[in-house]
């Protein structure tokens, strides 16, 4: 920020009035795209305030440093000694902010000590600061995965304490994120949540936990131990929680054949419920499960609505404003960009004709691509290939490709998954450099790739007008593409271009005769890293 205004704010750091100094430091810290060098003077001033005899100044300093640590933890590392001294401050709010700041800037070896210190007085602080503590622990879980057991124990103890809705929701969200991102912590996390819903007065949290149990519980080594906790909700809770419990029970029956007879009995009992929604769900799931067809289970129990909920709400509202004799068409709603649940093949699949299943998959891709503005005018989808894995399973980034063939275009859909829990990939793009008469029209990036959450990139290629270029000879040089992934990764405030030397993926994508064209694709990945 090379401007007279920034120089003026920086000069205010040397003012004789403490309030002016603090406001100048706060203004610098809240500037967008501020570098570590520009932050240094403001952090130094706040560091001096940490040792002030005035509690108001100490509180203001540590609260502001806490905000800095969220985006620039390395800039606050120099203040760690001063923050350590504030842990024993008589003002519990100051002590809490000091510890949560240290949790963001400290090393992995200091986690155990800090957790013990904060547990000694966490019951004495207000819910507002308890939420700050939970948020710091949540960030720490992503930073140090090996400390999950320590933090899970701490969170479970906090969950048993008295507190308001926001405080409990923060803890539940943190435990859920740990369960979803770390398989080794799944059973411990689910056990703590099951214990919590036994005496939970918040309907929103109870239904959220029941949804998680239905999603993760059936895939645990002993899924039957969760049935009692879920069915207790049907007996003891209100209508909304009972309905969520019925849906969770159905997911257990759909994925575990040995539990299916017991689940059917429980669903039959639920059909006698006093609430219409609970009875309707129980009746519906009972009839689906009695068919013992994996395809039906996947469609009506696991995947649920694959459409965009905001889009459906808007379309339904528009339909009510303009009465029509035609029934409402669900195909007019864009699909949600979410991964489809991968069903475990545990229940015998009743033979179904592939001719009937293939069009539904084709329709899904057609609507999904039509929802992208760049693909609206490509015409009807001719065919979509099966997914092709481009990377090895043990690599840092998992990439697979699906080819969508149109009359004059081909759309490469790249499903990318980041398997590194300490990295956040942003603006993930796949660029295709064609040879000869092939032309790349656009590349559509995935906004971000968080740990273990799939993202989708698209590359649109125009096919040559000359049919002779669309032969089936794999030796033709003009049918070769090079695909380059640019994966921006936020680490520090300095851009480092690795020039492809960090990770290299070599793979081939073949469009065979059934696709209508042969194309050889070579994937070369280059990583651009933004160091935190």
TrEMBL record:
<dbReference type="GO" id="GO:0030126">
    <property type="term" value="C:COPI vesicle coat"/>
</dbReference>
<keyword id="KW-0472">Membrane</keyword>
<dbReference type="GO" id="GO:0005783">
    <property type="term" value="C:endoplasmic reticulum"/>
</dbReference>
<dbReference type="GO" id="GO:0072384">
    <property type="term" value="P:organelle transport along microtubule"/>
</dbReference>
<dbReference type="GO" id="GO:0005793">
    <property type="term" value="C:endoplasmic reticulum-Golgi intermediate compartment"/>
</dbReference>
<dbReference type="InterPro" id="IPR013041">
    <property type="entry name" value="Clathrin_app_Ig-like_sf"/>
</dbReference>
<dbReference type="InterPro" id="IPR011989">
    <property type="entry name" value="ARM-like"/>
</dbReference>
<keyword id="KW-0968">Cytoplasmic vesicle</keyword>
<dbReference type="Pfam" id="PF08752">
    <property type="entry name" value="COP-gamma_platf"/>
</dbReference>
<dbReference type="InterPro" id="IPR037067">
    <property type="entry name" value="Coatomer_gsu_app_sf"/>
</dbReference>
<dbReference type="InterPro" id="IPR013040">
    <property type="entry name" value="Coatomer_gsu_app_Ig-like_dom"/>
</dbReference>
<keyword id="KW-0931">ER-Golgi transport</keyword>
<feature type="domain" description="Clathrin/coatomer adaptor adaptin-like N-terminal">
    <location>
        <begin position="3"/>
        <end position="292"/>
    </location>
</feature>
<keyword id="KW-0813">Transport</keyword>
<dbReference type="GO" id="GO:0009306">
    <property type="term" value="P:protein secretion"/>
</dbReference>
<protein>
    <recommendedName>
        <fullName>Coatomer subunit gamma-2</fullName>
    </recommendedName>
</protein>
<keyword id="KW-0677">Repeat</keyword>
<dbReference type="InterPro" id="IPR016024">
    <property type="entry name" value="ARM-type_fold"/>
</dbReference>
<dbReference type="GO" id="GO:0006886">
    <property type="term" value="P:intracellular protein transport"/>
</dbReference>
<keyword id="KW-0963">Cytoplasm</keyword>
<feature type="domain" description="Coatomer gamma subunit appendage Ig-like subdomain">
    <location>
        <begin position="365"/>
        <end position="468"/>
    </location>
</feature>
<keyword id="KW-0333">Golgi apparatus</keyword>
<dbReference type="Pfam" id="PF01602">
    <property type="entry name" value="Adaptin_N"/>
</dbReference>
<dbReference type="GO" id="GO:0006888">
    <property type="term" value="P:endoplasmic reticulum to Golgi vesicle-mediated transport"/>
</dbReference>
<dbReference type="InterPro" id="IPR017106">
    <property type="entry name" value="Coatomer_gsu"/>
</dbReference>
<dbReference type="InterPro" id="IPR002553">
    <property type="entry name" value="Clathrin/coatomer_adapt-like_N"/>
</dbReference>
<keyword id="KW-0653">Protein transport</keyword>
<dbReference type="GO" id="GO:0000139">
    <property type="term" value="C:Golgi membrane"/>
</dbReference>
<dbReference type="GO" id="GO:0006891">
    <property type="term" value="P:intra-Golgi vesicle-mediated transport"/>
</dbReference>
<comment type="similarity">
    <text>Belongs to the COPG family.</text>
</comment>
<dbReference type="GO" id="GO:0005198">
    <property type="term" value="F:structural molecule activity"/>
</dbReference>
């Amino acid at each position: 920020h090379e401007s007279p205004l920034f120089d003026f704010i920086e000069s205010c750091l040397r003012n004789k009035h403490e309030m002016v100094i603090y406001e100048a430091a706060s203004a610098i810290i809240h500037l967008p795209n501020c570098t570590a060098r520009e932050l240094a003077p403001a952090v130094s001033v706040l560091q001096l305030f940490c040792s002030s005899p005035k509690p108001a100044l100490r509180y203001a300093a540590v609260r502001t440093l806490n905000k800095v640590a969220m985006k620039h933890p390395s800039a606050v590392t120099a203040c760690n000694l001063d923050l350590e001294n504030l842990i024993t401050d008589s003002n519990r709010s100051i002590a809490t902010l000091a510890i949560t700041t240290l949790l963001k800037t400290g090393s992995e070896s200091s986690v155990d000590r800090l957790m013990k210190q904060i547990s000694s007085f966490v019951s004495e602080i207000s819910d507002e600061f308890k939420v700050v503590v939970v948020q710091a622990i949540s960030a720490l879980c992503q930073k140090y995965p090996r400390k999950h057991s320590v933090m899970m124990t701490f969170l479970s103890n906090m969950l048993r304490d008295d507190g308001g809705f926001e405080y409990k929701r923060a803890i539940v969200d943190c435990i859920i994120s740990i369960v979803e991102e770390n398989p080794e912590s799944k059973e411990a996390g689910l056990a703590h949540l099951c214990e919590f819903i036994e005496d939970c007065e918040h309907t929103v949290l109870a239904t959220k936990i029941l949804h998680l149990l239905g999603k993760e519980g059936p895939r645990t080594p002993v899924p039957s131990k969760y049935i009692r906790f879920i069915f207790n909700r049907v007996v003891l809770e209100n209508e909304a929680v009972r309905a969520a419990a019925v849906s969770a029970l159905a997911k257990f029956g759909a994925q575990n054949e040995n539990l299916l007879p017991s689940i059917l009995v429980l669903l039959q009992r639920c059909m006698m419920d006093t609430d219409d929604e609970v009875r309707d769900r129980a009746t519906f799931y009972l009839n689906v499960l009695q068919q013992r067809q994996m395809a039906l289970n996947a469609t009506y129990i696991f995947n649920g609505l694959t459409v965009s909920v905001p889009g459906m709400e808007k379309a339904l509202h528009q339909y009510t404003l303009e009465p029509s004799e035609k029934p409402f068409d669900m195909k007019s709603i864009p699909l949600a960009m979410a991964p489809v649940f991968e069903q475990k093949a545990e229940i015998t699949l009743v033979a179904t004709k592939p001719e009937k299943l293939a069009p539904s998959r084709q329709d899904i891709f057609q609507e999904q691509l039509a929802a992208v503005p760049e693909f609206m005018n490509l015409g009807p989808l001719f065919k979509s290939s099966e997914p092709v894995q481009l990377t090895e399973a043990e690599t840092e980034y998992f990439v697979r490709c699906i080819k969508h063939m149109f009359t004059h275009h081909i759309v490469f859909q790249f499903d990318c998954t980041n398997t590194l829990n300490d990295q956040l990939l942003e603006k993930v793009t796949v660029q295709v450099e064609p040879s000869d008469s092939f032309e790349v029209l656009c590349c559509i990036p995935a906004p971000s790739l968080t740990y273990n959450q799939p993202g989708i990139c698209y590359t649109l290629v125009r096919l040559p007008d000359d049919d002779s270029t669309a032969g089936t000879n794999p030796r033709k040089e003009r049918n070769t593409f090079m695909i380059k992934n640019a994966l921006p990764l936020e680490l520090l405030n300095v851009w480092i271009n690795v020039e492809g030397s960090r990770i290299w993926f070599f793979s081939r994508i073949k469009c065979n005769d059934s696709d209508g064209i042969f194309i050889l694709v070579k994937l070369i990945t280059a990583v651009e890293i933004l160091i935190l």
